[in-house]
Predict the 3D structure of the following.
Amino acid sequence: MSRSVLVTGGNRGIGLAIARAFADAGDKVAITYRSGDPEVLTKEGFLPVRCDITDPEQVDQAYKEIEDKHGPVEVLVANAGVTRDQLLMRMSEDDFSTVLDTNLTGTFRVVKRANRGMLRAKKGRVVLISSVVGLLGSAGQANYAASKAGLVGFARSLARELGSRNITFNVVAPGFVDTDMTRELSDEQRAGILEQVPLARYARPEEIAAAVRFLASDDASYITGAVIPVDGGLGMGH
């Protein structure tokens, strides 16, 4: 049966691959985005909804639009996020707070709003996109790592809080993925990263999407509070 799925930040990279995976399975997929051409997303059969998740009013309005066209959100993939990399002594208050407000507090906003419908339906699937950086740490990314680590505690707390309502909360922690962002790195930087990855390659966005689809499927109905690494072995043991 086709479900109402929302992927935040689903207009490119990992988010778009996730959206396509659900659409290919027959689900109705809405995507939030902040910039870009929504017509491209519409042509692929998605419902594009402009939304800045740092604005509670925009989040609420986005859900109203999705609920009107697709029904209450049954599967939420919280993928939207930003980076503002900087060494600690050079990191400004704004660098830190902007990343936390988007990646962690923004996720709180979209999850809380989705749970309104999930509680009524007494079922739901929530998947948060974290990062191997949230488990390992990364020099120059204290803000990003803190925000992504926070998603683990957030998901596990809600797994305990709402498990009896048949709502699952899980986390996918990607490693280095072959996206526009990583393609901007120099050959030297890319080679240095691959030296750390046991499988000696970058992940494909579709490999992250497959893990997310699994966690949202009936086959994963007894999995909640889990952190699934899709990182080529980079973060093993964490």
The chain has a mean pLDDT of 95. Residues 93-121 form the longest helix (29 residues). The first strand starts at residue 4 and ends at 8.
